[in-house]
Structure formats: structure tokens, C-alpha cells
């Protein structure tokens, strides 16, 4: 399984994401934002956390219009897998691949702490390694993680079982406690919490590792 | 020609920064502030001299980059 991890100026979780994927058995290529094409044979694209382009204008807005993002969008439109964490989630909403937007946290503070995450659906390659309803502990680290989506899109997300994770104790004001959402074809996931930072024993727990191992297992056998 | 773009959170989207400003104004003794919305102003210096053309171009910039129309509204002013 060949994964690409995109690197923007200001990305700071790119290596964490690559290590989590590698430990799960993926071959990982780091791809610079000025590149216009993915390496040949990429099955999966990771859009990492960080502060791409200094969060100028809006979080993720500049990155979403960078050359490599055209390739990310076309990969997703062809049915490819794309996974965005934190700033990666913000970028994916800015591209329009995922609905909604991430606003400033309701309490206006940058929050960096482990949170409880409830797995709302096991029906995706990302969440299939967990049980529906299972609660895992994964850290968040963001200033703009307050997920906002209009009532129609919220009803659609719920009706189509596309809410992947919710917070057990909403830290940022997100609508319906939403921490992560899936695309219509369930192949694009964006989430604010960082499973790659809870992926081995030395991180405190390894509850994020099942996400990566399930992705790799599913794509190897695909 | 200069264009000024105003970007605001749409009505109905909670603006926590505006709310914080409203509270701060209240604690300074400015009573009667019922609502505060905070937005941004972006100024562009354009080579274009035709007003209609400039307005079209800046509107396209807003749709593509300057505003996120999922949560924000914008207005374009030529000055």
C-alpha cells in the first residue's frame, strides 16, 4: 500500500502521520505542496496537521488552492482515499471535498489536551477497526476546530451515517459534538483530533493505531 | 483602481469573537450593545481600469479564495 503525505510550509504533523502509516505497514512518499502530481501508484493521501501558510486569510484556505491540492481533489473525485487531520480537515473543507467549515473555538482558546472520542460508525476503512460506540482517547491541538455545518447538511450527514467521530465532552463548540466527517462515498475523512499522536505505547496509549492498521489492511487486500 | 472587500460571517453563524468583544464593551460600561459581529476588510490595488470588469474579477476572487461562502458573506466596493 502506497501512501502520500502532503507537506505544506507550516505543516508540523507530516512526519507523525508518515510514521503512523509506516508502522501500520504502508510505504510513504512525502509530497511537496508545489508538486503538481502524486507519485505513481498512490492509493491513499494524508493531509497532515499544522499551520499551513501560517493560517493566513483562513485556516487551510491558501493550502486548498496550492498546486498539489488540484491533484488531491482529482484523486478524491476518482474515488481515491484522502485523510485529513486537524489543519488537513480544515484544508479538505476549504476544497469542498467535505461539507461545513471549522470556526474559531467557542471559548476562543487554543486547546491542546487528550479528549474522549466516540466512534459513531464502523462503516469506513478508517473506523472499521473499532466498534461502533467505542470511546477512544486521542489528543486535540487546535484553535479553530469548531465544526459548523448548516441544518440541511447536518441532517444529511446524520442520515447517511457520515459522522465518523463525536466528542464525549465537546471542547470547542462543534455542531452536534462532531469531531470528524466522511464524504458521500465514505473514502474521504476529515477529523480535528490526532490519532497519529496516540499510535504507540510511548504516546501514552495506542488507541489511534487501529485507524492506520485498518486502512493499510483494507487497501493491501483491495 | 482600488477595491475593498468586506468579509463577514453569515447571519446565523455564531461569532464567538464578536461575542467576546460585546462582553468586553459591556464591562467597560458601554451599555446597550446588543450584538457585535467581527469581520475583515481586504484592500486590493488593481491594474484594471474598467469598473465592471474589476467588479467581476474581484467577485471571482471572493468566490474562489477571499471568502469561504459556506460560512462567510462578502461585499465588493470600488474606491
UniProtKB/TrEMBL annotation, chain A:
GO biological process: 'de novo' IMP biosynthetic process
GO molecular function annotation: ATP binding; glutaminase activity; phosphoribosylformylglycinamidine synthase activity
PROSITE patterns found in the cross-reference section: GATASE_TYPE_1 (PS51273)
Catalytically driven reaction(s): L-glutamine + H2O = L-glutamate + NH4(+); N(2)-formyl-N(1)-(5-phospho-beta-D-ribosyl)glycinamide + L-glutamine + ATP + H2O = 2-formamido-N(1)-(5-O-phospho-beta-D-ribosyl)acetamidine + L-glutamate + ADP + phosphate + H(+)
Listed pathway(s): Purine metabolism; IMP biosynthesis via de novo pathway; 5-amino-1-(5-phospho-D-ribosyl)imidazole from N(2)-formyl-N(1)-(5-phospho-D-ribosyl)glycinamide: step 1/2
Enzyme Commission numbers on file: 6.3.5.3, 3.5.1.2
Predominant location category: cytoplasm
Sorted UniProt keywords: ATP-binding, Cytoplasm, Glutamine amidotransferase, Hydrolase, Ligase, Nucleotide-binding, Purine biosynthesis
GO cellular component: cytoplasm
Keyword Cytoplasm: yes
Subcellular localization, as worded in the UniProt entry: Cytoplasm
Residues in coiled coil: none
Active site positions, chain numbering: 86, 194, 196
Classification via NCBIfam families: FGAM_synth_I (TIGR01737), PRK03619.1 (NF002957)
Name of the molecule in the record: Phosphoribosylformylglycinamidine synthase subunit PurQ
Organism: Roseovarius aestuarii
Taxonomic lineage: Bacteria, Pseudomonadati, Pseudomonadota, Alphaproteobacteria, Rhodobacterales
Automatic annotation (TrEMBL), chain B:
Gene3D superfamilies in the record: Phosphoribosylformylglycinamidine synthase subunit PurS
Entry-linked InterPro entries: PurS, PurS-like_sf
Principal location listed in the UniProt entry: cytoplasm
Keywords: ATP-binding, Cytoplasm, Ligase, Nucleotide-binding, Purine biosynthesis
Enzyme Commission code(s) on record: 6.3.5.3
GO process annotations (BP): 'de novo' IMP biosynthetic process
Keyword Cytoplasm among UniProt keywords: yes
UniProt-listed SUPFAM superfamilies: PurS-like
Coiled coil (residue ranges): none
GO MF: ATP binding; phosphoribosylformylglycinamidine synthase activity
Protein's pathway: Purine metabolism; IMP biosynthesis via de novo pathway; 5-amino-1-(5-phospho-D-ribosyl)imidazole from N(2)-formyl-N(1)-(5-phospho-D-ribosyl)glycinamide: step 1/2
Subcellular localization, as worded in the UniProt entry: Cytoplasm
Top-level enzyme category: ligase
Known catalytic reactions: N(2)-formyl-N(1)-(5-phospho-beta-D-ribosyl)glycinamide + L-glutamine + ATP + H2O = 2-formamido-N(1)-(5-O-phospho-beta-D-ribosyl)acetamidine + L-glutamate + ADP + phosphate + H(+)
A single GO cellular-component term on record: cytoplasm
Superkingdom to which the source organism belongs: Bacteria
NCBIfam families, A to Z: phosphoribosylformylglycinamidine synthase subunit PurS, PRK05974.1
Subunit-level organization: Part of the FGAM synthase complex composed of 1 PurL, 1 PurQ and 2 PurS subunits.
HAMAP family: PurS (MF_01926)
Similarity comment: Belongs to the PurS family.
Record's function text: Part of the phosphoribosylformylglycinamidine synthase complex involved in the purines biosynthetic pathway. Catalyzes the ATP-dependent conversion of formylglycinamide ribonucleotide (FGAR) and glutamine to yield formylglycinamidine ribonucleotide (FGAM) and glutamate. The FGAM synthase complex is composed of three subunits. PurQ produces an ammonia molecule by converting glutamine to glutamate. PurL transfers the ammonia molecule to FGAR to form FGAM in an ATP-dependent manner.
Protein name: Phosphoribosylformylglycinamidine synthase subunit PurS
Organism of derivation: Roseovarius aestuarii
Gene from which this protein is expressed: purS
Amino acid at each position: 500500500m502506497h501512501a502520500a503525505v502532503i507537506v505544506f510550509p507550516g505543516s508540523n504533523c507530516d512526519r507523525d502521520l508518515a510514521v503512523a502509516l509506516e508502522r501500520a505497514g504502508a510505504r510513504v512518499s512525502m509530497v511537496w505542496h508545489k508538486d503538481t502530481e502524486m507519485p505513481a501508484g498512490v492509493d491513499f493521501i494524508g493531509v497532515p496537521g499544522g499551520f499551513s501558510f501560517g493560517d493566513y486569510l483562513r485556516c487551510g484556505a491558501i493550502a486548498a488552492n496550492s498546486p498539489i491540492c488540484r491533484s488531491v481533489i482529482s484523486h478524491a473525485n476518482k474515488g481515491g482515499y484522502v485523510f485529513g487531520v486537524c489543519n488537513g480537515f480544515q484544508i479538505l473543507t476549504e476544497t469542498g471535498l467535505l461539507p461545513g467549515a471549522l470556526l474559531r473555538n467557542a471559548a476562543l482558546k487554543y486547546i491542546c489536551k487528550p479528549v474522549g472520542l466516540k466512534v459513531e460508525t464502523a462503516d469506513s476503512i478508517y473506523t472499521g477497526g473499532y466498534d461502533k460506540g467505542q470511546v477512544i482517547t486521542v489528543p486535540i491541538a487546535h484553535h479553530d476546530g469548531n465544526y459548523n455545518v448548516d441544518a440541511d447538511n447536518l441532517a444529511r450527514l446524520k442520515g447517511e451515517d457520515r459522522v465518523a467521530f463525536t466528542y464525549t465532552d465537546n471542547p470547542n463548540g462543534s455542531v452536534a459534538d462532531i469531531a470528524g466527517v466522511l464524504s458521500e462515498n465514505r473514502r474521504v475523512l476529515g477529523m480535528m483530533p490526532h490519532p497519529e499522536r496516540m499510535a504507540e505505547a510511548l504516546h501514552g496509549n495506542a488507541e489511534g493505531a487501529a485507524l492506520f492498521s485498518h486502512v493499510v489492511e483494507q487497501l493491501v487486500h483491495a | 483602481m482600488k477595491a475593498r472587500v468586506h468579509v463577514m460571517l453569515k447571519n446565523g453563524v455564531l461569532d464567538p469573537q464578536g461575542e467576546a468583544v460585546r462582553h468586553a464593551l459591556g464591562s467597560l460600561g458601554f451599555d446597550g450593545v446588543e450584538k457585535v459581529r467581527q469581520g475583515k476588510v481586504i484592500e486590493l490595488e488593481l491594474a484594471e481600469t474598467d469598473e465592471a470588469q474589476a467588479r467581476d474579477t474581484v467577485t471571482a476572487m471572493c468566490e474562489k479564495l477571499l471568502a469561504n461562502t459556506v460560512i462567510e458573506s462578502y461585499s465588493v466596493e470600488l474606491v
